[in-house]
Amino acid sequence: VWIFGYGSLVWRPGFEFTSRKVGFIRGYSRRFWQGDTFHRGSEKMPGRVVTLLEDGGACTWGVAYEVRGEQIAASLDYLNMREAVLGGYDTKLVKFHPQEKDAEEPILALVYIATPQNPSYLGPASEEDIAAQIIVSSGCAGHNIEYLLRLADFMRYFCPQAEDKHLFSIEEALISILPCLYYTEESLEET
């Protein structure tokens, strides 16, 4: 079984796997439209994490993990709790296209997608509003800022040829807000 990750699964799968491949799926755009009140936020201050939006001409880059034998049941149990029960995601099968030049046919992979019917679904907002929400949110897996920056780093280092305007616009908005929040003694003395 192959499992495709496009959010925190790209750097923290949390399950054992046999192999992994960087690549993409077609027909979806990654969006920070899913609320998170557990991993990267709280009930009072939900974080924002990614989901996929059907989008005919788009492609989303991420990592596919191959799980075999006893890894299958263990990984699916773990992901069903992490993504479906706690995150409100549904599962779909998609065609995954490995990045490797000599890659064979696309691989069928399982992917978790949050839909607008999900009670934690937040939907669209401006990049600035999403960044502002990310800045103030933290959950049991860590700060929401870490989630955003690790995902941007993954795209930058493993998929430099790919575009993800939504992701990088939110990262840019976050970076432009952060200097306003943190002052050193030196900077206060200069003003």
UniProtKB/TrEMBL annotation:
It catalyses: glutathione = L-cysteinylglycine + 5-oxo-L-proline. It is an enzyme of class 4 (lyase). Gene3D superfamilies: Gamma-glutamyl cyclotransferase-like. One of its GO terms (molecular function) is transferase activity. Its EC number is 4.3.2.7. One of its GO terms (cellular component) is Golgi apparatus. Its main location: cytoplasm. It comes from the Eukaryota. Keywords: Apoptosis, Cytoplasm, Golgi apparatus, Lyase, Neurogenesis, Notch signaling pathway, Transferase, Unfolded protein response. The keyword Lyase applies. GO terms for biological process: apoptotic process; glutathione catabolic process; nervous system development; Notch signaling pathway; response to unfolded protein. It is found in: Cytoplasm, Cytosol; Golgi apparatus, trans-Golgi network. Belongs to the gamma-glutamylcyclotransferase family. ChaC subfamily. Catalyzes the cleavage of glutathione into 5-oxo-L-proline and a Cys-Gly dipeptide. Acts specifically on glutathione, but not on other gamma-glutamyl peptides. Glutathione depletion is an important factor for apoptosis initiation and execution. Acts as a pro-apoptotic component of the unfolded protein response pathway by mediating the pro-apoptotic effects of the ATF4-ATF3-DDIT3/CHOP cascade. This is Gamma-glutamylcyclotransferase. The lineage of its organism: Eukaryota, Metazoa, Chordata, Craniata, Vertebrata. The gene is Chac1.
